[in-house]
Amino acid sequence: MRFFLFLLLPVFFVCLNVHPVLSFDDMKVVASGVNMGLGYRSDQLDWAISADSGSGTLSELSWDDLDIFQIEASGWLEVEKIPYLEKNFLAVANVAFGKILAGTARDSDYVSGAPGGEWSRSVSDADDGLTVDISGAIGPIFELNDIIGLSVTPLVGYGFNMQALTMTNGRQVVSSLASHSLGSIPGLDSTYTAYWHGPWVGTDVDYMIRPEIKISIGVEYHWVDYFAQADWNLRTDFEHPVSFEHEASGNGVVWKLEGEYQLDKKWSLLLNGNIQNWRTDSGTDRTYFNDGQVGKSRLNQVNWDSYALTTGLQYLF
Predict the structure, then answer these.
(1) Fewer C-beta neighbours within 10 Å, C or N terminus of the chain?
(2) What is the DSSP string of 260-317?
(3) Helix or strand or coil: residue 114?
(4) 3-state class of 71 per DSSP?
(5) Phi then psi for 10, rounded to 5 degrees?
């Protein structure tokens, strides 16, 4: 419980600052609860770099078919009729942790970015790593009296997402250099950790089909700063533990669908699904060499797609 209250503290202070004379004594919480769930998630992430001119591709990496076991939790509360809007206000915080159980990675390099000039390709396992997703938001609740049981809640929030990806048990499958023989790549244990964070706006639409059944549909649009660090452990000419970094700006869209079935006055059964699509603009790739030099290339784009289905319980206070 303390964990959920800690996540919600920034949201509380925002609510308090809506009106200079509003205090804790003025706030009346009309509803609150916590949700806990677990389920399956599938991710895909890829990126590519080129010369500073942006012509051609020098290297591209992709992590595909990442099977993730995810645990998620959220805390929310509804405050009665804040000043100015005279509407009830929603504050919500979400956190999710995922463990990557299976997946594959592909690393391809090209000769001077020439089309069809792939001189090296390796594939490896990506069956380890973690994901973290944290988000908080606030917004007024608009009850649509013309349709009983229907409400719309515009939201403004901030989100943070992280994927800690790995590459192990590598196999060289394409090589035009004698120094890169085909077959197993002993000792491969490389990592790539990606961070996405920034503000977002969205809308939740709730509809009570029956007193015990509610359907919720939501959409979020995110503006993000992207940052990543990698450790290519077998590259002796690179620095370690930070071999190169990526920076870019981008955006993301999250679609959510939730079904809620009320078991009794306190407990409800939940079924959630979401789809996430994230993209960056072109950015910067900085490579750190063990002689102190820093190389710079163009980060063409980073793409991240995610699909999740979870089930869980809600408890009302």
Answers:
(1) N
(2) EEE-SSSEEEEEEEEEEEEEE-SEEEEEEBTTS-EEEEEEEEEEEEEEEEEEEEEEE-
(3) coil
(4) strand
(5) -60, -35
pLDDT at 179: 62
Residues of the chain with pLDDT under 70: 1-27, 53-55, 83, 85, 112-116, 146, 178-180
Tens digits of per-residue pLDDT, 79-99?
Answer: 987 767 678 999 999 999 999
* CA-wise closest residue to 129 among 186, 73, 192, 71: 192
Residue 196: strand, helix, or coil? strand
Q: How many CB atoms lie within 10 A of CB 211?
A: 8
Cis-peptide into 241, omega within 30 deg: yes
At 244, list the tokens.
């190169």
Place of tokens 């710079």: 296
Total-model pTM: 0.87
Please report where in the chains the tokens 């956190």 appear, as a residue: 95
Cβ-proximal residues to 9 (8 Å cutoff; 6+ apart), any chain = none
DSSP three-state, residue 189? strand
Q: What's the Cα-to-Cα distance from 113 to each of 49, 110, 177, 230, 242, rounded to whole Å?
A: 9, 5, 17, 22, 25
What is the reported pLDDT for 268? 97
Q: Tokens 């939790």 — which residue?
A: 73
Q: Please report the pLDDT score of residue 269 as a whole number.
A: 97
Residue with tokens 């994230």: 278
Helix (H) or strand (E) holding 198: strand 183-210
CA distances to 199, 245, 277, 286 from 299, in Å = 23, 10, 19, 9
